[in-house]
TrEMBL record:
CDD domains, sorted: SGNH_plant_lipase_like (cd01837)
Keywords carried by this UniProt record: Glycoprotein, Hydrolase, Signal
Similarity field: Belongs to the 'GDSL' lipolytic enzyme family.
GO MF assignments: hydrolase activity, acting on ester bonds
Protein name: GDSL esterase/lipase
Organism, scientific name: Quillaja saponaria (Soap bark tree)
Record bears the keyword Signal: yes
Length: 396
């Protein structure tokens, strides 16, 4: 992929990710009832949907107007403002979590974020800064390795005392913390942008999800107990897919139908994996969150929720989707030096730069999912430490 010659150096392609849930016969019910969990920390794993500065620490900040809405400057996030993980932290009374890779004066007492934009679950075929279409070197197994280091080394650092004791989590925080996951979209992107057929990408999903489970178990084996997993969103509703595949069949919302079906199959397998993980990991409390359905409602019914033009990027350089094939122009410069800036009405827009959601959309999604209404367990975020049992009872 290419950017305008005089644009910022942030000319990488970032594929997104997300998923759907089929209603299955296996539902869950709480074993214990009702009390907030009091999570002392959050540890997050993922891609740009939840990266709060990891890729920026490696390769540099995205350029203005990224961050314009809340931080009023680029803030390591691929959005105009905050992400779902920020709203999660805020609602739990925790500070916004910093990227593990942010080496400058960072306070990890209440969590660390291992996500980087452009991360995949499996080893990616092309690594940034290689172009076009390079992915983050920090794929999920590396995120796990970094977490493992963080767990042991943070305790050694704490023991130095003084200021160090107040920069790292307590040992017990690791057991009591909330572990959040939002990853998989880029594994689908690897296929779609690597000239694979829809069937080929679809067929790769069981292996992608197996790799997710392996990493998940590794994290559990280090003592993690409370988990909150976002499924993948409707990738076929994002401009980077719509602009790249203009002839792909559209559904009634204008989304690329079969691309979304691949997201849905990913989510189906992910949900199956969660059922298996609950059996294999008896001490884990695992909440599976159907972010796909909430995101899709923004495309099928934008006006109902106060949004407009959900298929069109707010920050781009024209075209049907305000997105240039294979190029994230947002924050770059045109050949005549004009900045590719914001549409100005970002608070009613869903898509920010062709791949990523706006703060307004992220806030909406958070409000929907935090109640438990889209969770497989029905537990709200604040109670995600409560273990549930698989039930054979059919809910519907
Ligand atoms: C780090 O943050 C925690 C609260 O999250 C605070 O108690 C602690 O004092 C901070 N550490 C430093 C060195 O400021
Ligand atoms: C996909 O195919 C196009 C056209 O044949 C080619 O230019 C491009 O390099 C291919 N991309 C990948 C990732 O193989
Ligand atoms: C993906 O594979 C599953 C299992 O074979 C199949 O049920 C589903 O229809 C496939 N989806 C697509 C979009 O090819
Ligand atoms: C630069 O180019 C863009 C797109 O071609 C155009 O809309 C804009 O008016 C131009 N700006 C200047 C200062 O010429
Ligand atoms: C496309 O992006 C440009 C540059 O940010 C913005 O001015 C324009 O309003 C956007 N178009 C739409 C339809 O949002």
């Amino acid at each position: 992929m290419v950017l305008f010659p005089s644009s910022t150096n942030f000319n990488i392609k970032i594929s997104s990710f997300c998923v759907l849930v089929l209603s299955v016969a296996c539902t869950l019910y709480p074993v214990f009832s009702s009390k907030s969990c009091d999570f002392p920390a959050i540890f997050n794993f993922g891609d740009s949907n939840s990266d709060t500065g990891g890729l920026a620490s490696l390769f540099g900040q995205p350029a203005t107007p990224y961050g314009e809405t809340y931080f009023h400057k680029p803030a390591g996030r691929f959005s105009d403002g905050r992400l779902k993980i920020d709203f999660i932290a805020k609602s739990l009374g925790l500070p916004y979590i910093s990227a593990y890779l942010d080496s400058l004066g960072t306070n990890f007492t209440q969590g660390a974020n291992f996500a980087t934009a452009a991360s995949t679950i499996r080893l990616p075929p092309i690594i940034l800064p290689h172009l076009p279409a390079g992915y983050s070197p920090v794929y999920l197994s590396v995120q796990y390795a970094q977490f493992q280091q963080f767990l042991s080394r943070s305790q050694a650092v704490r023991q130095r005392g003084g200021v160090y004791a107040n920069l790292m989590p307590k040992r017990e925080s690791f057991r009591k913390a909330l572990y959040t996951f939002d990853i998989g979209q880029n594994d689908l992107g690897v296929g779609f942008f690597g000239n694979k057929t829809i069937e080929e990408v679809n067929a790769s999903i069981p292996d992608i999800v197996n790799s997710f489970s392996t990493n998940f178990k590794n994290i559990y084996n280090l003592g993690a107990r409370s988990f909150w997993i976002h499924n993948t969103g409707p990738i076929g509703c994002l401009p980077y897919i719509l602009a790249k595949f203009p002839l792909a069949l559209r559904d009634r919302s204008g989304c690329a139908k079969r691309y979304n079906e691949v997201s849905q199959y990913f989510n189906h397998k992910l949900k199956e994996a969660v059922v298996q993980l609950r059996m294999d990991l008896p001490l884990a409390a695992i909440t599976y969150v159907d972010v796909y359905s909430v995101k899709y409602s923004l495309f099928s019914n934008p006006n109902k929720y106060g949004f407009e033009k959900p298929l069109v990027a707010c920050c781009g350089n024209g075209g049907k989707y305000n997105y240039t094939v294979d190029v994230m122009t947002c924050g770059g410069r045109l050949p005549n030096a004009t900045l590719v800036g914001s549409c100005g009405r970002v608070s009613v827009r869903v898509n920010w730069d062709g791949i990523h959601y706006t703060e307004a959309a992220n806030n909406f999604i958070f409000n929907q999912i935090s109640t438990g209404a889209f969770s497989d367990t029905s537990l709200p975020l604040s109670m995600a430490c409560i273990k549930t049992k698989n039930s054979t009872k059919n809910h519907n």
